[in-house]
Amino acid sequence: MISIDLGSNTVRAIKYDCKTFEKLGVFEKIVRTADKTHETKIVSEDAIKRVVSAVNEAKAKLEFDGKDAVGVATAAFRKAKNAKSALEAIKKETGVTFKIIDGETEAFLTALAVSEKLPHLEQKDCMMLIDIGGGSTEIIFKKDDKLVAKSFDVGILSFAGKHKDKDEMELSIKKECAEMDEFIEDCFYGFSRPTIFCATAGTPTTLAAIKMGMSHAEYDGEAINGATLSKDDVEKVYKKLLKISMDERSRLVGVGRQDLIIAGIVIFKEIFEVSGLHECVVFDDGLREGVAIAKCKKINF
């Protein structure tokens, strides 16, 4: 089956075998869907064109018909006033129907994908999972079959768009993340203190790749699954990215992400700080895999 995650920054698609639960092919492209959405409250015509181009590229690479794909759209379309017409335009050009899912569903499906990669997770263990997206950040706590999750309107595109540089971001992060910080603290005391901290999406996966010596062109998602990042690792890579040229930063993080990676790291550092945790396990697998697994297991969402 084919699942597509139409995110606020990236289009991610996967061809998945429901019998073996194996990946047959993957696709990912930065499209900046939510670029300026925090100001205009719409998905722009240029962003729609970028999404259409990326989805059609995915169709060619993974060899599928648009009508056979299961597509989900996230924060950018939850916020945009023109979400319905934008998705209709995308469907007209690609054949793919995208369903807008709420933040809690997004969190559940992401947790489903990561849990599949953690077969050793015992019932007594509590997992805290973060998904720092383009238009929102999901915080998930999971223990046994209990899951508590919340989506916050703090994403790398929206956060970067509000602030001119990293100094402004660092000064405003506490205020921007106040609600998220409170949720984490409440869950620590009211749910359970996590025994394992996991992170998915572009910021942690890129940092893990840089730590492992990969450039953007050399990125290997399967090698990233299960990699560890410490608080000190994040700080070390952050300082490195700030020192190097924009061309070198682009080589490491990808074209179009030079500014966004800084915003993502500032958010990531704040979560480390407020949680008091010192190390996380990183996963490339996320929402697109969760959608595929849910469909294969006939889990409704």
Coarse morphology = globular
- Placed side by side, the strands forming the largest sheet appear as 8-7-6-9-11-10
What are the secondary-structure elements, in order, as H or E? Answer: EEEHHEHHEHEEEHHHEHHEHHHEH
This entry's quaternary arrangement is single chain
> What fold name goes in the CATH topology slot of the largest domain?
Nucleotidyltransferase, domain 5
Q: Kindly report how far apart the N and C termini lie.
A: 16 Å
Number of strands: 11
The total tally of domains equals 2
Tally of helical runs:
14
Provide the residue-averaged pLDDT. Answer: 90
Broad structural category: alpha/beta
CATH arch. level architecture of the largest domain: 2-Layer Sandwich
> From the alpha-carbon coordinates, what is the Rg to the nearest angstrom?
18 Å
Top CATH class of the largest domain: Alpha Beta
- State which percent range the strand residues make up: 15-25%
Runs in which pLDDT lies below 50 for 5 or more consecutive residues are none
Query: In which range does the helix fraction lie?
Result: 40-55%
- CATH superfamily grouping of the largest domain: Exopolyphosphatase. Domain 2
Please summarize the sheet with the most strands: 6 strands, mixed
